Amino acid sequence: MVIGIWGDSITYGRSDDEALGWGGRILRYLYTKDTAAHVYNRGVCGNTTVDLLSRLDNELKTLNPDIVLLSSGVNDSKSVQGIETPLVSLEDYASNIEALIRIARAYTKRIIIIGLTNITDIDTPHGSRFSNDLVRTYDETLRAHAEREGLQFVSLFGLLDVETDIADGLHPNARGYDKIAAKILAEVDLIHP
Length: 193
Fold this sequence. Notes:
Elements: E1 2-7, H1 9-12, H2 21-32, E2 38-43, H3 49-63, E3 67-71, H4 74-77, E4 79-80, H5 90-105, E5 110-114, E6 122-123, E7 128-130, H6 132-148, E8 152-154, H7 174-187
Parallel strand pairs: 1-2, 1-3, 3-5, 5-8
Antiparallel strand pairs: 4-7, 6-7
Helix pairs in contact: 2-7, 3-5, 5-6
């Protein structure tokens, strides 16, 4: 069985001192269950849904996965260098999510939408601004599209404690990634295709 995971730096596992992220933790769990699963993490730091649209089809062709997990939106919601509007408007984000689902459906029926994680309001050294309220709005849009498309949605918003589970205001630490992987594994059957 092949499982493909697509998303951004939180999908990739940035700030995890165990270098696993939630995808690596899922892979480790599946190995303990003696499954023949292969987990490919295609999380890329800084990616938005626009970036995912530019690469998803080609990467799906390469992997031909049985299960696709998609998680993207935190970077879409950020504002950059003093511009108060999000990098990807909510309307464009919604259209991009629809397109990503359509592309994934050409390869598999098992598409799982992983919700966005809560963050703290932060300004990065590079001039970007992230707002927890805006991330929540993008997460609600993501959930609505998953429900409308009849796809399983794993809600993560509010799961992380900002004091103990987040490394830098945005990315989870090892404890946070443990919680994310546990939630996904509790809600999604990744052993049976």
